[in-house]
Write a structure and sequence with these properties.
Length: 264
């Protein structure tokens, strides 16, 4: 695959997220987009780090306490430290992970960086969340008769339609067996001051932002019929926080809801 397949002059969420995390795999358009959003929401970089920390804690819980050995991570983004497979395979080397993203640059890096333990497996699929049927058709390394953790971290909020987002999540969960898990985070403006919320709304109106926040009731809808893992739906920094963490963002700084739930 070559880098000719995408336009480096157009910002992409995966590369913008990489920029906020301090990575080098981004272009001027991604940095410009990231800086514009950060002007409206100054804590954007803190939120990105908090979201990554939530992912690592959630995957650690699923692998260690819940005994999950299979993960479907959609919207994985560019590889950084402690990706899903690294966290899971450090606990259970036999874990199998399928990553999915729609940025061709992620594929380029995935080939080099998303390695696996000898006992486990990792695969990368270049597909779009909006086409769940195609994603489900490519899960050869996962045993669909055994529980699978569906990971949708900081990706649902790129879908403008709540109805479409719920339909996609339902389609994916319906294809997984009982005992599977849904791990999700999504941006929200519920915790923001009126001024910050107005800035966010203006960014959406002017096209500077493509992040569509969800309210608490809207986020709750994704977990209908599932068994929430304690502490339920909370700001991401409050989901089983690590007492040794150097950074403990407030809900205003990390304005995302997060939750993990089991399919009954």
């Amino acid at each position: 695959m070559t880098l000719e397949r995408f336009d480096t002059g157009v910002a992409h969420p995966a590369r913008r997220y990489n920029y906020w995390l301090g990575g080098k795999d981004n272009f001027a358009a991604d940095r410009e987009s990231g800086d514009l959003l950060a002007r409206s929401y100054p804590a954007a970089r803190i939120a990105a780090r908090a979201n990554r920390a939530f992912l690592q804690r959630a995957v650690g819980h699923l692998a260690r306490e819940a005994g999950i050995r299979q993960f479907l991570d959609i919207g994985t983004g560019l590889p950084t430290a402690d990706n899903t497979h690294e966290v899971a395979q450090r606990i259970a080397p036999e874990s199998r992970i399928v990553y999915v993203d729609n940025d061709p640059m992620v594929m380029v890096h995935a080939r080099a960086l998303l390695t696996s333990t000898p006992e486990g497996q990792t695969r990368y699929l270049e597909h779009d969340l909006r086409d769940p049927a195609t994603i489900l058709a490519g899960l050869e390394i996962l045993d669909r008769s055994q529980p699978i953790a569906l990971v949708l971290v900081a990706v649902i909020h790129f879908l403008p339609s709540q109805d479409q987002a719920r339909e996609i999540v339902t389609t994916l969960l319906d294809a997984l067996p009982s005992g599977s898990y849904l791990t999700m985070t999504c941006a929200t403006t519920d915790f923001l001051t009126p001024e910050l919320k107005a800035n966010w709304d203006e960014s959406l109106r002017t096209g500077r932002s493509d992040v569509i926040p969800r309210t608490r009731p809207e986020f709750d809808q994704f977990f209908t019929g599932l068994e929430l893992v304690t502490p339920g739906v909370v700001p991401i920094s409050e989901w089983r926080p690590d007492p040794s963490a150097e950074e403990n963002p407030t809900p205003v700084e990390a304005s995302l809801f997060g939750a993990v739930a089991r399919k009954i």
